Amino acid sequence: MQSMLRGKDWIETVDWSTEELETVLQTSWDLKSRFALGEPHRLLQDKTLFMMFFEQSTRTRNSTEAGMTQLGGHAHDLTPDKMQISHGETPKDTGKVLSRYGHGIAIRNCFYGVGNKYIREVAEHASIPVINLQCDVDHPCQSIADLMTIREKFGHDLKGMKFVISWTYAPAYARPLSVPQGLITLMPRFGIDVTLAYPKEFNLIPRTVEAAKKYAKESGSKFAITHNMDEAFKGAHVLYPKSWGCHQYLEDQGVPEADRKKVGMDIINKYKSWVCTEKRMKLGKKNAIYMHPLPADRGAEVEDAVIDGPQSVVFDQAENRLHTVKAIQALTMGGRP
Ligand code: CP
Hints:
With 337 residues, this protein is of the alpha/beta class. It has 2 domains: 13-139 and 321-333, Rossmann fold (3-Layer(aba) Sandwich); 142-317, Aspartate/ornithine carbamoyltransferase (Rossmann fold), CATH 3.40.50.1370. It contains 13 helices and 9 strands. It has helices at 18-37, 59-70, 91-101, 115-125, 140-154, 178-186, 206-219, 229-233, 247-252, 260-268, 278-281, 304-307, 314-333; strands spanning 48-53, 74-78, 104-109, 130-135, 162-166, 193-197, 223-226, 238-241, 289-290. It has a 5-stranded parallel sheet with strand order 7-6-5-8-9. Strands 2-1-3-4 form a 4-stranded parallel sheet, with helices on both faces. It is globular, with a radius of gyration of 19 Å. The structure holds phosphoric acid mono(formamide)ester (CP). Phosphoric acid mono(formamide)ester binds next to helix 2. The site of phosphoric acid mono(formamide)ester (CP) has 9 residues, from helix 2.
């Protein structure tokens, strides 16, 4: 068990060894038990976390802030318009200044081609740990909570389990790539066979696909890509259908920035049949679970009967966001000197 994690940034799970990730999971279960017992666990007493949200959030914002309160500290809920970021203050200066005031910086910045770079620039200049609350590359707080949930449902040994992350139709807006990328780079490390399904325009950033292949090879698990949703669902233990945008495709095709929103939405509208239905769920194993990070586009991405049905674990996933982020906070902002 790797226990010396104080000061370590939590930006992508690929930056953490499998042993370190096991420490996060073990700590999450410990904190979940203490929360269930009503036992105080003020491991970050009087410590401050600065949360900077460049986008909206329900789960991440509230789990991260509640987590700090429960650990005995405090979180500042910040947006660029509340800070001098809106007047052009640099990530370097922001990181240096906040380091003088508190004990951790947490950032959500999902802008494609921008978010990960921004977070890494703050981290380079901050002297306190930086936590990624979702960027354009990874959503590590989500994927680790999902792994915790899968272990709760299926046990510790996940070798041979089929996990499917599939694109779905969602007309409201083009979502970031970070959830599917976070899942394909994490699950194969724990022996899980991963199938990634999407219409051909919805490819992910190549380096995350390469990492998934590498981890699958190292752990002896399988990683497959298909462009057929039904084919992907067959025999699966975990069905994780959720939407994302075709950012990488638009960039590859050289679509000008100004046209990307319209072109991207036109492409999304070509694939209205990519919905998680009750009928499709039957293609999976009898004991298969339905997962979604939320918010879900009900009626477009998924039928109510599925997300509200007996196979759905979406609220367990959402709950585990609290316990896992508390583990990350406690280990990186507190922990061993
Ligand atoms: N899953 C997730 O990150 O939800 P929020 O966007 O509400 O934080």
